[in-house]
What does this fold into?
Amino acid sequence: MGQKENSDSTVQKNAEKIILKKLSLMLGVPLKEPEKPIVLKCKLDGFHDSSRPICVEVFARQGKSLAGQKKKIMSDMCKLLLVEKKLGKPCMKVIAVSDTESVLFLQNSWMGVFAQEFGIDILCVDISDAQRSKIKNAQSKQKMTNVEL
It folds into this structure.
């Protein structure tokens, strides 16, 4: 059986759009998904082109991150660095989250040092309690589905 049925992330994708919209307001610039990848098959969640482009990856996780989510954050940080390199100019690189608990693992770890050393900002935006509940419910269902495999 494919992973597709077991990893329906519609709720998280909708939450990511909300987080990106709120981050746009926070930064005062429109952030949009680029129409085409800046690097082959490497699409950002949000981008604003300017003299100092803003490159954004959104992480909708609620609660403590597990090993797979930690790898995703590291992969997203690498993606931001690659895009900056390909653009050939310094960028504001952002991992946008809506729950600080999801990125607590970055504190006192080499992964947090990595983010600091490469100028990657971890920015938290506030979402509604209803949206948080939707994400938590979806995460819970995904966890149960994965256990059944």
In short: The CA atoms of residues 41 and 79 lie 11 Å apart.
